[in-house]
Amino acid sequence: MGKTWRRSAAAAIAGAFLAWGVGTGGTPAAAAVACPSGVESDFNGDGTRDTAVADPEATVDGVAKAGAVHVVYGGGKGTTTLTQALDAVPGVPETGDQYGYSMAVYDADLDGCSDLVVGAPYEDIGTEPDSGAVHVLYGSTSGLNAGSKPVKEFFQGTDRPLGGGAEADDWVGYAVAAGKTSSGSPFLLIGSPGESLGTTEDAGAFYYVSGTAQNVVMVHQDTDVAGAVSGTAEQDDRFGSSLAATPTHFAVGSPGEALGSVTFAGGVGYFNHTLTSGYPKPLGGLGQDQDTISGAEEVGDQFGDAISMVPYRPSGATSTTESLLVVGVPGEDLLTTVDAGAVQVFRITSSGSFSQTAWIDQNTADVHEEAEAGDLFGKRLAAVNVSPNITSTGTTTRVAIGVPGEEWAEDNADKGGVQIAPLVGAPGASDSWIDPGYGIPSAAAPRMLTGLALGATPSLLYVGVPYGPVEGRAVYGFPWNVPAGGAPTQTFKPGEGGIPAGGVAFGATVR
């Protein structure tokens, strides 16, 4: 299959589901005296959370799908729009770059202001199309990308931050994840699932960027430093398609992984942040061919197409050194229900051992809705632990599960929806369901694919609705304990609150 996989790790089943993907500034952010540490997603240092909403399909200066990122400062302190048409942002708008296709937030330089990571996996580098690039835009007391630090670029090439040589269709920045390790060191993960290793096309890789010095190493499935990475680099593995991390662990999805002769069965490798010669330590791998993991490997399951991870503290523990890893299996067949999808939850201990703690699908006892063919339950995930320093419960650890293929009557095919479930205890004990017209204010319509855009914060679950009727395209913030059909408490919408009107796929990515 090789380079036919252009826009989606799920092209074999649902390539259209990832076909997302204006360039003007807004009111400047009010300056703060200093950047306080410990406030998540605070780009301007005023102690209030800010929000980044991407439209990777936005037209910029007449260039289609160049992409844009809208930043809304908390406390009513204005908005700004970031595109490659701005002098302070490297590059120029090009057709199909999809700037903002992926995003992450962390404090890269430990100055207390949050910094924004923006991926443009279809950026052309020189003459190499869709090689991809990632920007780190720094926060400051004057706002995002408004201080003295220039944008840090990550892309391939001789004497470039990622080294090697730029190659067509590597898709650097297809996925990104970032944070701070338990020892307080910043880290950034950059996925490059189209990376070819020798003649092995689309084997995939990721880059680990460590510390304030931003030291970079590339890791793939044939890397053997401080232990072997799970799996073997093979064509179409697409290792690095999905990324997730906590202060103690991180995970890397390879949804194209073949298990024996079963193609696109999928797998996930997991690591900790302990570095040897700059390389993180591999701990193990997960796949449905293992006896201790439910399900059976099947063609097109795409185990690991979406992953999410949160800190976990079991009962009796005095510190939080474990993680819960949530794995989406959107192509999972439930008996004869093809591509209904499922989600599996794993506990990762500090020593690196794992155990499966839950299987969730729409046929699970007491879970809302019902599994149907083509639902693709688990195509997207967003998980949260709102209280990581206490014993984890079903109230403090939650996961939002995207179900973009969900239908409501034949005239609203692929309307989509979002299932919210506890990560501890029975999934159906406190789950809820929202979809367009039922909690989500956008009216139901065909091909809305709701559930493709999810973002997690400690206080709110963000659900982007980038498709469907124009009047309903927005990002809606729901409390994590929202009842089935409950209303959002926050809304970001083009043309409102200082956000420019228009756009194409506003809310396709939100952080």
UniProtKB/TrEMBL annotation:
Keyword hit for Repeat: yes
Secretion signal span: 1-21
GO-annotated biological processes: integrin-mediated signaling pathway
The organism's place on the tree of life at top rank: Bacteria
UniProt KW keywords: Glycoprotein, Integrin, Repeat, Signal
InterPro entries linked: FG-GAP (IPR013517), Int_alpha_beta-p (IPR013519), Integrin_alpha_N (IPR028994)
Classification via PROSITE patterns: FG_GAP, PROKAR_LIPOPROTEIN
Gene3D superfamilies in the record: Integrin alpha, N-terminal (2.130.10.130)
PANTHER family: GAMMA TUBULIN COMPLEX COMPONENT C-TERMINAL DOMAIN-CONTAINING PROTEIN (PTHR36220:SF1), UNNAMED PRODUCT (PTHR36220)
Name of this chain's protein: Integrin alpha
